[in-house]
């Protein structure tokens, strides 16, 4: 039985906790929003994998990382399923108290995006970093209401920290067993699978957010072929320059991945809730790789600039932006 701390208990983190609990592990949730209510009533989960779960709770729920490590509490794994927002906060800083209290803890990242492991490995070079690429369709509807419409399937591997590879592989494979082989699968090249998921996240996730339309309505309007697929072609070109080959079949899979449902990708759900978007790790990171290799990205570059405007609006609504009283515009034409 593994002792696992989960930080980020939305649609992905809650289902991960449910699966880990059902496979005999001791799971602790760090719950920041609606803590008192959820501690009393638990989660109401509608899951295509696990059925309906009413008032479900993990073994333990705490309100902060500091409470999680109180009384010398140790963990085998700390699983991070919160949004990756490096322009707002540092994931490494959030989990640092856990790593300091549990020196042998393995860090598991169930987050979107590219190169999210690098700051973790830099901050904690002696800890195994396990990277998980989840293709689940699960949404936190608010106040502990979780709806999982698409099956949970996670590709899991280690992100090389430069030490002996055997112990890193061992910890990653042990986590697969803890999660359940039905829902998790070990892969040798987890970075490739992050690139592959970007075929969806850097295109559908971003463009749905800008247009405020779900993936089904984009498809009905022909956007899947006129805009999404060409944008996927740019991701494929960047990945190829970085040494990872994605195919037209991968494109077709992602185009059809939402099936017959009118699915709202996670970034669109965030925008509708007024939450910040993971645009830096989902789109800026691959664009940085494109710049490194001089790969042209006319579509994705425009999408990113539009997302910057949308993110600005979200930050302004949260009081994170202080506007100057007067604008001092300087134009090259005057």
UniProtKB/TrEMBL annotation:
Presence of keyword Translocase: no
Record's keyword terms, sorted: NADP, Oxidoreductase
Domain Ketopantoate reductase N-terminal positions: 4-160
EC number: 1.1.1.169
Residue intervals of the Ketopantoate reductase C-terminal domain: 190-309
InterPro entries, sorted: 6-PGluconate_DH-like_C_sf (IPR008927), 6PGD_dom2 (IPR013328), ApbA (IPR003710), KPA_reductase (IPR013752), KPR-Related (IPR051402), KPR_N (IPR013332), NAD(P)-bd_dom_sf (IPR036291)
Oxidoreductase recorded as keyword: yes
Catalytic activity: (R)-pantoate + NADP(+) = 2-dehydropantoate + NADPH + H(+)
MF terms (GO), sorted A to Z: 2-dehydropantoate 2-reductase activity
Coiled-coil region(s): none
GO CC, one annotated term: cytoplasm
Record GO biological process: pantothenate biosynthetic process
Pfam family, any one: ApbA
SUPFAM superfamilies: 6-phosphogluconate dehydrogenase C-terminal domain-like, NAD(P)-binding Rossmann-fold domains
Function: Catalyzes the NADPH-dependent reduction of ketopantoate into pantoic acid.
Entry-linked NCBIfam families: apbA_panE
Family named by the database record: Belongs to the ketopantoate reductase family.
Protein name: 2-dehydropantoate 2-reductase
Native organism: Yarrowia lipolytica (strain CLIB 122 / E 150)
